[in-house]
Every structure is written in C-alpha cells, then in structure tokens.
Write a structure and sequence with these properties.
By secondary structure, the protein is α/β, with parallel strands linked by helices. It has two domains: 118 residues, Rossmann fold, CATH 3.40.50; 95 residues, Winged helix-like DNA-binding domain superfamily/Winged helix DNA-binding domain (Arc Repressor Mutant, subunit A). The protein is built from eight helices and eleven strands. The strands form three sheets. It has a five-stranded parallel sheet with strand order 2-1-3-4-5, sandwiched between helices. A four-stranded antiparallel sheet has the order 6-7-8-9, covered by helices on one side. The two termini are 27 Å apart.
Length: 225
C-alpha cells in the first residue's frame, strides 16, 4: 500500500514516516500543500494523510483541488483543531476521516487500515485466497496451518496482490503501489520479489496462487490455471 504523508512539522513527519514504513507501507512524505498536490498528480496512492495547517496550500485546498479533478484517493486529515465544527467541516469537504493531534500511532494505523479497506471494498482485515490468509491488523500470514514470515516489502507486495485477487497487475502498476519515489525502476526487482513470495507461499503446495501472465504482469488467483 502506498501512502502520501503531507505534514509540515518535520519531526512529526519523520516519525510518522518511520512508523508507517515499519508497518509495511510505502510512504512518500512532503512538507507543504503544493508538494502534496504535485505528488498526487504524479503517482497513484492508496491513501493520503494530510495536515490541515500547512504552508503554501493548506489541507482543505489540497482536498478541494484533487476532488475537483475527480481523484478518489481516500484522505485522512491530521489537525490540532478539535472542535466538532472543525471535524464536520473536514468531513463535509470530502475527507474520509479526521484525527486530532496529539494522537496514538496505533490509532493512526488503525484508521488508515479502515480507510483503505473501505476503498478496496473489503469488510474485514482478513484477506483470503484458497488456504492463504493475511491479517492486515496483525500482519500474520498463514497457508493452511503453516505460518509464513515475510519481509516488509514481501508483505506489502502480497497484500497488494491479495487486495486485487483475480486482477492481472502490470509490473508498472505494482511498482507504483508497492514502492515509493525512491525506487528508480529499470530493474527486475518486481520479478525478484514475486519469486521470493512464490518460494514462501506456493512451494510444496498443490494449488499455486501466484501466476505470471506473459507480456502483461502478475495475478494472484485461486487455481493453477
């Protein structure tokens, strides 16, 4: 899952980026509203966390501009404003959620999970395919009775494949959602991580879940065909 973070308090920006990265998210961070708009116009994000009181353009202006462009990326506002009227204003302007500072990082991560789960049309934190189960809240992955240990990037890739079960995803689309702007592309890194997952998910199993669609990309589906 790829998240945009726009927060002008540099220490808080750094800490949130670290927390979300350790959670398995690919994070692009910026410090003002215009940077946020530029990022949102350039890449596909699964969610955006926007401070309201930012320089150049505030969070409300960022939200208005992307909604005017019919961009449906889920948005969570961060703000020190804690009145009911402020929360109502943020939601009425088109935000999906609103979190008041100071906040716990566990609550922030839970709200991001809920926000992105809704955008993908999932009702729970459990993603399944055949005997494979991924729990978004705990990051626990199992295949039948077998517990599977994944690196942060392997987990992010598997989560993205499972959220799009049955949909063929191009290498470019996977890059755009699982890696951030620090990833320069031009290598076979996606194929390498697909192979890592196959070793851990499919090796020794009668039903293979991760498939290559030649000339197009990759798909996670139930069945070997």
């Amino acid at each position: 899952m790829r998240i945009l973070l726009a927060e002008d308090e540099k220490d808080l920006n750094r800490i949130i980026t670290k927390e979300l990265t350790e959670e398995g998210y690919s994070v692009d961070s910026c410090f003002d509203g215009q940077e946020a708009i530029d990022c949102l116009m350039t890449a596909e994000y699964d969610g955006a966390v926007l401070d309201i009181m930012m320089p150049v353009k505030d969070g409300y202006e960022v939200l208005r501009e992307i909604r005017n462009r019919n961009m449906t990326v889920p948005v969570l506002f961060l703000t020190a404003r804690d009145s009911v009227s402020d929360r109502v204003e943020g939601l009425d302007r088109g935000a999906d959620d609103y979190l008041v500072k100071p906040f716990s990082f566990e609550e922030l991560k839970a709200r991001i999970r809920a926000m992105t789960r809704k955008s993908f049309g999932h009702l729970s934190n459990l993603l399944t395919a055949d005997t494979l189960t991924l729990d978004i809240a705990s990051h626990r992955v199992t295949r039948g009775e077998r517990k599977i240990t994944l690196s942060a990037k392997e987990y992010a890739l598997l989560e993205y494949l499972m959220r799009n079960k049955g949909i063929v995803l191009s290498k470019e689309k996977i890059e755009n959602h699982v890696w951030n702007f620090d990833y320069e592309g031009g290598t076979n890194l996606v194929a390498v991580y697909i192979n890592y997952l196959r070793e851990k998910i499919d090796k020794g199993e009668n039903v293979k879940l991760i498939h290559t669609v030649r000339g197009t990309g990759y798909v996670l589906r139930e069945g070997n065909n």
